[in-house]
Write a structure and sequence with these properties.
Rossmann fold, single chain, binds adenosine-5'-triphosphate, six-stranded mixed beta sheet, 8 helices, binds magnesium ion
């Protein structure tokens, strides 16, 4: 097991979103999360890396324990270092969001964070190349690393966003509808990539597509009426 959620309640300022969530997320598996629009899928992801704290008035109760750096961590513990938690629990958003800088600088960005693994500068180039190869983007961008990331196609931008999450070496990789804005060809590439990545990461993917969930998930959680149930 990688994550254990007990009795989780969540609210934004005036809106109760999640109630009494109890879930176990398995290590090195792909867990899909589904539910209608507004059900609380993205919110559940924000709980797992405490990104909800960026919203004033948001509050949680209950507990989430994640197995990170070989130990169980109570992630709501105030002593948890947030940059470390967010490095360990990477998040890829629904719309590809390359930062307004070059492809290469997008990938160097996580190293500006305090908790990204320290890498000698001469090894950074190798790290960039290896990560781009891992997301099957290297051949397409190897001659334009210094060009703006915004010049990439949507599917390429999403693979870059995944690369940027991966270069920080997360143990948990969360993806919020990562293929919803992509063509079927790019969608297939990302699905194949996730199947490979589960060897090294525990993956949680929010998806609206029943077909996609069937193709790639080992487990499926549905959020309905503010609570979550594991379908398999
Ligand atoms: N920052 C916020 N402040 C207040 N309410 C919010 C905030 N973000 C989301 N909500 C509300 O919380 C509920 C859950 O939103 P959430 O984004 O988690 O849903 P979702 O399942 O991801 O939906 P979708 O499929 O449309 O992305 C919704 O009612 C939404 O309007
Ligand atoms: Mg959402």
């Amino acid at each position: 097991m990688k994550i254990k959620i007990n009795n989780l309640f969540f609210k934004y300022k005036n809106t109760d979103v999640l109630k009494n969530i109890n879930l176990e997320i398995m290590k090195n598996k792909i867990t899909a999360v589904s539910g209608v629009s507004g059900a609380g899928k993205s919110t559940l992801l924000l709980c797992l890396n405490r990104l909800y704290e960026e919203f004033e008035g948001a509050g949680v109760s209950g507990s989430i324990h994640s197995f990170l750096d070989n130990k169980w961590v109570d992630i709501f513990d105030r002593s948890v270092h947030l940059p470390w938690l967010r490095q360990k629990t990477g998040l890829v958003f629904q719309n590809p969001n390359p930062f307004p800088m070059s492809i290469e600088k997008n990938l160097l960005f996580p190293f500006r964070l305090l908790s990204a693994p320290k890498i000698e500068s001469e090894n950074l180039e190798t790290e960039i190349i290896n990560t781009l190869k891992k997301v099957h983007l290297y051949e397409e961008v190897k001659n334009r690393l210094k060009m703006p990331a915004s010049s990439l196609s949507g599917g390429q931008q999403q693979r870059l966003s995944i690369a940027r999450a991966l270069i920080a070496k997360p143990e948990i990789l969360m993806l919020d509808e990562p293929t919803s804005s992509l063509d079927p060809e790019s969608e297939k590439k990302i699905e194949a990539l996730l199947m490979e990545l589960k060897k090294e990461c525990t993956i949680i993917i929010v998806s609206h597509s029943q077909e996609q969930i069937q193709r790639i998930s080992d487990h499926h959680i549905k959020i309905e009426n503010k609570t979550a149930s594991a379908l398999y």
